[in-house]
């Protein structure tokens, strides 16, 4: 079956994850998760938090920690953490290396793009404002799986982005850095480009999955796909 990256396919939409693809926020976010966990008496290092919870929704983090430790993080854990994350990203969000040039390059390809993230809209607003990406992402092209109450690995946010664009999922490519996001892309029936310089391959592998080591590689890949498909 043709997919968005195949020569016989039709690439019509790029869907970016936010954290780890556009914004370098996974580290600070996971350190916050670890710090709050330790405040509740849970032994969780910054390094373990990053390895285990990067890309996961706060509700999933809460469930896993409570199930494994027996600690009660409180019914308002997610809301409190969300507020803390907005404040944190307002002060600490930085772009992923190469993201600004990549966005200029994708725009020059005249290829529509959207964002599908587990972050909330308030969190993405402050991230994009801090790093200067707000002009690239009008609010109606930014989709929050958290605020839709359907966080990844649920594919809903990607399918919603495709529907808003009016394109079939098979014409979309998702840019992701986490296994959670790759799972969501797979289940959405979309091609996926995994941004990962090193480390293990994702659990799911399929013909529409590619891997790049740096955002500098993305525009040449997309340009090559469009050229092949135009033949």
Summary keywords:
alpha/beta, DNA polymerase, domain 1, 9 helices, globular
Explain this structure to me?
This protein is an alpha/beta fold. It has two domains: 148 residues, Rossmann fold; 67 residues, Putative phosphatase, domain 2 (DNA polymerase, domain 1). The protein is built from nine helices and six strands, in the order E-H-H-H-H-H-E-H-E-H-E-H-E-E-H. It has a six-stranded parallel sheet, with helices on one face. Helix 6 links the parallel strand 2 and strand 3. The radius of gyration is 17 Å and the shape is globular. The two termini are 19 Å apart. The model has no long low-confidence stretch (mean pLDDT 93).
Question: What topology emerges from the helices and strands here?
Answer:
Elements lengths: L12 E4 L9 H14 L6 H8 L4 H12 L7 H16 L6 H10 L4 E5 L3 H11 L10 E3 L11 H10 L6 E5 L2 H10 L2 E5 L13 E4 L5 H12 L2
Parallel strand pairs: 1-2, 1-4, 2-3, 4-5, 5-6
Helix pairs in contact: 1-2, 1-4, 4-6
Looking at the structure, the CATH topology of the largest domain is: Rossmann fold
Distance between the termini: 19 Å
> What is the class of the largest domain in the CATH system?
Alpha Beta
Strand order, largest beta sheet: 3-2-1-4-5-6
CATH superfamily of the largest domain: HAD superfamily/HAD-like
Largest sheet: 6 strands, parallel
The CATH level-2 architecture of the largest domain is identified as: 3-Layer(aba) Sandwich
What sort of overall outline do the alpha carbons produce when their principal axes are compared? Answer: globular
Work out the helix count: 9
Q: Quote the average pLDDT.
A: 93
Total strands: the figure is: 6
């Amino acid at each position: 079956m043709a997919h968005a990256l195949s020569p016989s396919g039709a690439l019509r939409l790029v869907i970016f994850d936010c954290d780890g693809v556009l914004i370098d926020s996974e580290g600070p976010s996971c350190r916050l998760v670890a710090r709050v966990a330790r405040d509740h008496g849970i032994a969780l290092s910054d390094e373990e938090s990053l390895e285990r919870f990067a890309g996961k929704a706060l509700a999933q983090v809460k469930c896993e920690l409570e199930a494994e430790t027996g600690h009660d993080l409180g019914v308002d854990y997610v809301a409190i953490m969300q507020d803390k994350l907005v404040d944190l990203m307002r002060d600490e969000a930085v772009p992923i290396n190469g993201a600004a040039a990549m966005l200029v390059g994708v725009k020059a390809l005249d290829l529509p793009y959207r964002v599908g993230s587990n972050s909330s809209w308030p969190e993405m607003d402050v991230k994009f404002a801090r790093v200067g990406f707000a002009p690239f992402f009008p609010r109606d092209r930014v989709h929050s799986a958290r605020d839709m109450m359907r966080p990844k690995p649920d594919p809903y946010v990607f399918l919603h982005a495709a529907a808003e664009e009016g394109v079939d999922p098979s014409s979309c490519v998702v840019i992701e850095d986490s296994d959670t996001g790759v799972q969501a892309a797979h289940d959405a029936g979309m091609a996926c480009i995994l941004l990962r310089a090193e480390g293990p391959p994702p659990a799911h592998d399929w013909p529409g999955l590619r891997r790049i080591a740096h955002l500098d590689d993305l525009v040449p890949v997309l340009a090559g796909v469009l050229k092949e498909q135009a033949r």
